[in-house]
Amino acid sequence: MRPFRSGRRIMSTSNYPNAPLGIRLAAALGSKLFPRWQINRLLWFKCSVLTFTYLAYMCYHMTRKPISVVKSVLHRNCSEVQIPPEFIHNGGEPPNDSTWCDYPPFDGPDSAALLGSLDSAFLFSYAIAMFFSGFIAERVSLRYFLALGMLFSGIFCYLFGVAKVYDIHSMWYFVFVQAMAGMFQTTGWPGVVTIVGRWFGKAKRGLIFGIWNSHTSIGNILGSLIAAHYVEKDWSMSFIVPGFLMGVFGFVMFLFLVDRPEIVDCQEKVGDVRSGYRRIDDERIAEAGGSSDNDDLNGTSSEQDNPSLRSLRGSYSNVEINERTPIYGSINRAPAPDDAIGFVGALKIPGVAEFSLCLFFSKLVSYTFLFWLPLYIQSSTTLGAELSADLSILFDIGGIVGAIAAGLISDYTGMSATTCTGMLALAAPALLVYQQWGAVSLSFNICLLFVAGVLVNGPYALITTSVSAELGQHRSLNGNSKALATVTAIIDGTGSIGAAIGPLLAGLVSSSGWGRVFYMLIVSDILALLLLLRLVSKELKRRRSRTRNVRIE
Predict the structure, then answer these.
(1) Selection from 133, 237, 267, 152 nearest residue 192 by Cα
(2) What separation in angstroms does the CA of 440 have from each of 186, 381, 384, 469?
């Protein structure tokens, strides 16, 4: 077989026997069709990983959204519904039952409580299972982990729609399906964040994750459009179609996803990291007037004659290498064991506990908006249900902008906790302004809602993506790469508990007025801010220390 050339190295099926079947077939086909075609292999795999993980988590959210759309037809005002011919009684008389268009068991006066229990079953199952999901993800192939998770998530989404096809009316059936769907949905976030974290270094990670994180909003929009297309005709298809699409794409992930750079020999070697930073040191030492041809990174005789060189080597080599090579650790350390980290060990990583608790309150605010915003807009303005739902999309659009902005600021400053704290400090007054003056006019509502989306979802997105990946590769792990999924699961699992509690509290508090709901959200933002103050102090001290070192140079 003729080799498939890709940049500096040759890619063929014999080079990568552990690669997914789809990759090996593509390599074999490419070697025949394009024998002289050269590509940047590393760039190609990075782009494919970003694309596949983006589409994967988009599918996860696509299957979460139908229930919020279908709720409107499970229980509604039947007097406003056109009676189909097959429902008309003998003699042409319409049905006397005022709930004839509802779907049992959601046809009674307790329908709101029953529909709310479906949300609770999903959210609490998701929150609890997330902690176990990260533990498992560190110990198995993430390609299999994601493929099976997507398959079963699609199956349980499909089973919810099948209830209408087979005339199933048991409330226990719907609760079981939602709980199982929530459990298998936990395979998504630890899996995709870990894979992206393995492939992309720290440089511009915030920006990459910020743009990549838009899959959440795109999945919500796509799920809404698919569900809305079928909801009036046959609401079972609102679940069956997304479930089928997710199962199919899970199989595509199984065929093509490369979950580790080592599988295709794209990993960065420790020696390359050492030589790269030594080269940078040599260049900077030469600029300072020293000699570096035969010097090592720990200092030489030339440093004894030049104090600025001692400062340069001490401040740059030890600090920068430790922070910028988190996967492989410092060059002064022994290679790390490759054992998966435990739950307690992950909690001991500096920053994990603070960011987890911060996300608890941040996600509480975000998910309260997700579940209650359309109803609040409808009750506080003259807009109808459909326009209120359309207007609420602006909060998600603001979230996309906020995620990108938070990532850019974090990359530029290198201070993730400070970035989150700043946005949370602005989010609290923004929520108060929106509650007080959002109903003044439509244009004012649009502007304030967009701003609220930027400030509320920006910290939430940054913590669940870039921060989780960075902590999962913290230098205290000394190069242990098997901590990403566990750390991600702990942070997102803690946040998911807040996501489950927030909408429930909002439902209880809203009976006393929407003002109290917003006060609850503002207090949650302030608590999230306070939990990061210790990390903010450390970041500011580290930045001042670096500034002093630069001045010395």
Answers:
(1) 133
(2) 41, 9, 16, 42
